[in-house]
Amino acid sequence: MNSESSSAEHLQSEEITLSDDIIVSFLQDNPEFFNRQPELVASLRLQDHQRGAVSLVERQQQLLRAKVHGLEEEITHLMSVANQNEQLFVLYSDLYLRLLDCKEGSELLDCLYQATTELLSLSGLKLWLTEPTHLTHQSLCDKNCEDILSNRLANDTYYFGRLQQSEQQQIFSQSIQGSVVLIKLSDQHGIIGFLAISSQDADHFDPRMDTLLISQFTRLVSKLLRQHLLSE
Questions:
Q1: Confidence at residue 59, expressed as pLDDT on a 0 to 100 scale
Q2: Short name of one Pfam family for this protein (predicted)?
Q3: CA 57 to each of CA 27, 30, 70, 186: distance values in angstroms, whole numbers, following the listed order
Q4: Which of 11, 49, 73, 222 has fewest C-beta within 10 Å?
Q5: Separation of alpha carbons 40 and 9, rounded Å
Q6: In sequence order, what are the residues at sequence separation of 6 or more whose Cβ sits closer than 8 angstroms to the Cβ of residue 161?
Q7: How far from the centroid of its chain's Cα atoms is residue 185's Cα?
Q8: Dihedral of the CA atoms 173, 177, 179, 184 (nearest 10)?
């Protein structure tokens, strides 16, 4: 008798404390469990913060509906992004053709300025060159911006975000409300300068922006500037 009592106490001491992880592991290892326990499935009630107690089947349907809704939103977002990218591709393709048709420096600067402010609907554009040019144009920055080139574009081709007040005055000769992108222009001969493009939208030029289209634009503009401005 004492032996049986001792065995029972020993078994009780070895009982496993059920945890969420153990139950989850059991159900994953035994997918037929609920098929063997149909009454349990029908009687289970889960607490829902909005609807009160719901059945397991209702909870599954609710989760599936939420998942489908999330997928629909993701697909809608991807389609919107794809549509925007397609529109940008068309705009940039048109811009490239206009730039390639330019025959002289002033025409090139006109095209750059108009394309930026009209075609791309941005606020403004300024071009700073490391070498002097005989041309005068509203888009040319006549102040020394060597320090901005060194501080913002020493190790990068692009800078997205906001500028300090002094930098805004230095480049644009006025305060800029919104965001800017600085684009370093260079070719095999060295650094040509940089383009500064502004947007009234503070979030338009974001460091997370994709640079594929801008990189193609940068190479073409660098080539044309060297050809039309710095060789004249």
A1: 67
A2: DUF484
A3: 16, 18, 20, 63
A4: 49
A5: 31
A6: 179, 180, 205, 206, 207
A7: 23
A8: 0
Residue labelled with tokens 């480049």: 171
The single residue listed with the structure tokens 């070895």 is: 14
Name the residue with tokens 């992880």: 21
Domains of the chain: 2-61 (no CATH), 102-228 (3.30.450.40)
Residue with tokens 């599954």: 60
Chain segment 183-207, per-residue pLDDT in tens? 999 999 999 999 999 999 998 998 9
